[in-house]
Amino acid sequence: MFDKIDKIIVERKLTPASCEYHTLRVLENNGKIRALVIKGENVVHIEFICPKCGNYDYHTQERKQVSKGAKFRFETKCPKCGNVVKVEKLKGAKKPKQ
Fold it and tell me: How far is CA 46 from CA 14, 53, 70, 87, 95, in A?
């Protein structure tokens, strides 16, 4: 379980340079989400364990562009319980001015 994206990476011989977006996040209640967008594709590969019901799911969905001001990268819905899982953008620390 939780190895579908690993298999895609191995089968397609993907490197970090060939990925437009790749993340693995730990959620509350032992939930987990992993997402992969391959350069040149408009599809998000999503693998997650729902933090609400514990259901494992893998699916793909169309990638939607978000604005720079948006708080979330994307969201997906658990097919078992309907819980919406949102992946927040990571905010890097600003470099101090010299």
Answer: 16, 17, 20, 11, 32
